[in-house]
Amino acid sequence: MFRLCANLRLTQLPKSVPESFMITLGLRRYSSPAKEAKISVDGVNINYVKVGTGQQNVLCFPGMLGTIWTDFKPQIEKLDTSKLTVFAWDPPGYGGSFPPNRTYPPDFYYQDAEWALKFMKALNVQRFSLLGWSDGGISSLILAAKHPGHIEKLIVWGANAFVTAEDTKLYEGIRDLKNWSDRMKAPLIKIYGEEYLSKTLSSWVDALVDIQKNQVNGDICRWLLPFIQCPTLIIHGAKDPMVPSLHPQYLLENIKGARYHEFPDGKHNLHLKYADEFNKLVEEFLLQ
Q1: Domains of the chain
Q2: Phi, psi angle pair for 26, to nearest 5°
Q3: Is residue 247 among the annotated active site residues?
Q4: Is 167 a catalytic residue?
Q5: Parallel, antiparallel, or unpaired: how do β-strands 44-51 and 84-90 relate?
Q6: Quick one: pLDDT at residue 33?
Q7: Which of 56, 66, 167, 226 could anchor a disulfide with 62, C-beta 3.0 to 4.6 Å?
Q8: Are 68 and 62 in contact (CB under 8 A)?
Q9: Which residues does the UniProt record annotate as the domain AB hydrolase-1 (predicted)?
């Protein structure tokens, strides 16, 4: 979903707001050699970074309200960029990709998938692998299924192909910023402003609730999973409070040839907390 780029440790986190879902804690201090750039895609200036000279292209796809640095800093700065060329972007309405303001129509996951492909094509990258986290993982599933000729390999975590009634209860728990501690919300407010953050967050919850109510069995992209042709790695944190294990298990059972790796103590932000282990896993899968 989204993470704060902060080297903080929270105390007295509200029970209704799982810590790993809301904020990245204890990020290491990395140097930041990568410079942000902009490219126009269908009239929207997309903010992105590109690092590395490797033959394998990889796109990092962030979660809801996620940005280049809040969601993928350890990957941008620590993946083997002699073998990989790593791209990370702010989808329209997130981070530095303004305008437009972010909205969540019923097909927003599908729209994000198309934006990602158009963005990579604008950079003259026709084939690439995907690192998709949370909402970015969902759109990565869609992108891999709908455009198999462009996707070499797929890695997703914190993603789900459908929404249950129990899932929506978790989402409702984070709707109101009043439930957040000041330390939690201050960094996001610094990025987005309180009004934009509150409105966007509430709109996202509304969209997921509508999917659960209005789509058969809360479907997002179940029907597309059999169309994923590329090698796929599904990663799951066994202690993820926002994505129950039924979701990665469903992906594993419905994506042909998919592999599965579990972090026993991992939560929603496992790639940040266990960055070195995660990066090694990613490199082995992408480069084998």
Answers
A1: 41-287 (3.40.50.1820)
A2: 60, 40
A3: no
A4: no
A5: antiparallel
A6: 65
A7: 66
A8: yes
A9: 58-166
Number of H-type helices and E-type strands within the chain = 10, 8
pLDDT over 80 (residue 27): no
pLDDT number for residue 179: 83
Decide if 268 is catalytic.
yes
Token couple for 162: 């459908």
- In the chain the beta strands, taken as DSSP E runs, fall at 37-41, 44-51, 56-61, 84-90, 128-133, 151-157, 232-237, 259-263
- Residue reference for tokens 């059972």: 253
Whether residue 26 is predicted with pLDDT greater than 60 in this model: the reply is: no
- What are the strands of the beta sheet with 56-61, ordered from one edge? 37-41, 44-51, 84-90, 56-61, 128-133, 151-157, 232-237, 259-263
Catalytic residue among 134, 139, 140, 198: 134
The span from the CA of 215 to the CA of 209, in Å, is 10
Name the catalytic one among 71, 240, 247, 271: 240
